[in-house]
Each structure stands twice: as structure tokens, then as C-alpha cells.
Amino acid sequence: MNEGLLLGGAAVGRLNDVWVYLSASPLLGLTATLLVYQGAFVVYRRLGFHPLANPVAMSVVVLGVLLWATATPYATYFEGAQFVHFLLGPATVALSVPLFEQLARLKRLWLPILGALVVGTLAATVTAIGVAWALGASKATVASLAPKSVTAPVAMGISEQIGGLPTLTAVLVVCTGILGAATARTLFDVLRIQDPTVRGFALGTAAHGIGTARAFLVSEEMGAFAGLAMGLCALFSAVALPLVAGWLLRWV
Question: What is residue 228's predicted lDDT score, i.e. its pLDDT?
């Protein structure tokens, strides 16, 4: 029994040492992010990958509560979490692997894809600006909403360029992705859209990375076209949105 108490005390001591080390280094933010997301994903899997149990949404809520409860400034947390943020780039590039396997079909569908890209991107921007303006939002808020369907790093750059608030844009981008991932399947079924190519491209255009992750859970084909849509949308938006949104914001 004494040996058990000694072992237990030693284990607690080691855990305390780990906590002291992490709390004094940027690794705390990284560790917290990975552990919280892993826990959220376990819940997501046990609920049968239900769209309303999105692990990103759950992780944001839990991490927000942890930062508030421990009075941890976001800047301190992000010193460690930025390593995850950095991996968004390589992860996006990796989406080209499943897309390459769909290259033959992509060559046949390049014209519809181009049309869907332009219409989908501009529709997301115009409707966001129009609804925000109709509800009496400030010009800065309207500008922050304009690139809500673009992947976060590009959206924040566009927002800053047209007079928006990049931090608000980041929140809106995440909310848009979660909402798109949660409602897309029902909307597609109501509209009787069954083609995985169309589903994937629409989801990637409207819900960027979070929607793409959801698409990969359905099928590799759907995920490949969602990844294509996300990348093309970011590229097109970086060029066209500052011009289109800037012109529309003159009337707000």
C-alpha cells in the first residue's frame, strides 16, 4: 500500500512538473488546442459524425471558456496555438492529392466549375453586404462580412484592405464554415442535389475549410471538389472581392 502511495505521489509530482513547464511556455496553448480538439472529435465520432456536433465549434467554445476561466490573454494562448495555424498552409496544399485523382473529370467540367466559382463567390459577397446593410450594420461590420465565405487567412487580408475588422472577419468565417457544414446535407437533399461533385464544389465555395473537412467525411470525390472550390475561391476572391466589395461599400 505504501508503495502504491509513493507511486501515486510520484505521478502527481511529475504531472505538476509538466504543468509548471507548460504554463510558463507557449506550448500550453498548443497542448490545450490539441487535447480539446481530440476530445471534441471523440464526441463527434460517437454521435455518428452528426453535423451539429462539429468538433471545431465545440473546441472554440471549450477553449473560449478555458481562456476566460483562467484569465489567459488571447495573445498568450496564440503564442503556442500559432503552430496549428501555420499547418493550415501545408494542409491546404495536401488537398491537391485527392484532386489529382479526379483530374480527368475536372478537365471535362472546367467550364461549369468556372461559372459556379464566379457566381457562388459573388453571390456570397453581395448577399452578405445586402443583408448587413438592410439590418443597419456599420460600414466596418459590413466590410468584415463581405469575405465571410473565403478561407480565413485570405478573408482577413481582404477585410483589412476594404476597411473591415480582420478579427471580426475571422470569427465570421468560422461561423460561416460551421453553419455550412451543419446545414449543407439537409439543403442538398431538399434541393435534390445528389451529385457528389456538385455537392462538394458548392460546400467548398460556401463553407471553405470546415465545409471541405465535412465533405471528405462523405466521400473522397466530394472532398476533392470541395478542396478545389476552396482554393479557387480564395484565389478569385483575393483579386475580385476588393474591387466588387469596395464598389458596393460606397453605397452603404
Answer: 84
pLDDT in tens, 120-149: 888 988 898 888 888 888 888 999 998 888
pTM recorded for the entire structure: 0.72
Q: b vs e for 170-206, b when ≥16 Cβ sit within 10 Å of the residue's Cβ?
A: bebbbebbbbbbbebeeebeeeeeeebbbbbbbbbbb
HSE-CB of 60 using CA atoms within 13 angstroms? 13
Q: Residue 130 and residue 13: Cα distance in Å, rounded?
A: 58
Q: How far apart are CA 174 and CA 194, in angstroms?
A: 26
Q: What is the dihedral of CA 8, 13, 15, 18, to 10 degrees?
A: -160
Asked whether the predicted pLDDT for residue 215 surpasses 60, the reply is yes
| Exposed / middle / buried, residue 78 (Cβ in 10 Å: 0-12, 13-18, 19+) | middle
Phi, psi of 163 (to 5 degrees): 95, 15
How far is Cα 199 from Cα 216, in angstroms, rounded to an integer? 11
